[in-house]
Structures are given as structure tokens and as C-alpha cells.
């Protein structure tokens, strides 16, 4: 999972792997905008990529990732599938910015 934050930074802020099957959770509400009952457990992709030294601006991916053709590619979408090539490019950006 590659996490992109629209506001305030419009940047990639982390990369994680899913470590569990989907499960339902109703006692904890992480965000107030609506209820998200279906969850998965995640962990940083590797210890080398735990933290970014700074967010990666989306502009670094425009035109280089198939789903990112403009600076506002995800309007109204919470999840976007990526190709292996897209993931490889984004991972290389993350490795350059990892602490």
C-alpha cells in the first residue's frame, strides 16, 4: 500500500505491506468523516523504508506512473490500482527519500 495524502501536502508519505486478511472492526473509529468497518493490518515495507525524510511531491510521478497523468489524478478515489512498473518507480522514489 502506498499512502498519498491530498491535504495539505499532495505527497506520497509512506509505503506498507498488508499482513492480515480483511477483518471487521466496529469499536475503533480512526477517522471522523465516516465509518470504515473493513480493515487490514499493515507494516512498513522494510525497515529501510520506515520513514521518509520528507514527503514525496506528487509532481515527481506525473507522467511517469500510468495512473498519474496530472497533478489531480485521484479526485473522488480512495484506492487506485498500480501496475508493477508503477510500483517499482514509486518505490525507487521512496528509497531515495527514506531515512
Give start-end ranges of low-pLDDT stretches. Answer: none
* Name of the top-level CATH class: Alpha Beta
Mean pLDDT: 77
> What name does CATH use for the topology?
ph1033 like fold
Number of strands: 6
How is the main sheet built? 4 strands, antiparallel
3D structure, described in words:
The protein contains one helix and six strands; from the N terminus they run ββββββα. The protein is 14% helix and 21% strand. The relative contact order is 0.22. The chain has one helix at residues 84-97, and strands spanning 2-5, 11-18, 23-24, 38-39, 42-44, 56-57. The two termini are 19 Å apart. The model has no long low-confidence stretch (mean pLDDT 77).
Q: Can you summarize this structure?
A:
This protein has 99 residues and is an alpha+beta fold. It contains one helix and six strands.
Key traits:
4-stranded antiparallel sheet, two-stranded antiparallel ribbon, 14% helix, alpha+beta, globular, 99 residues, ph1033 like fold
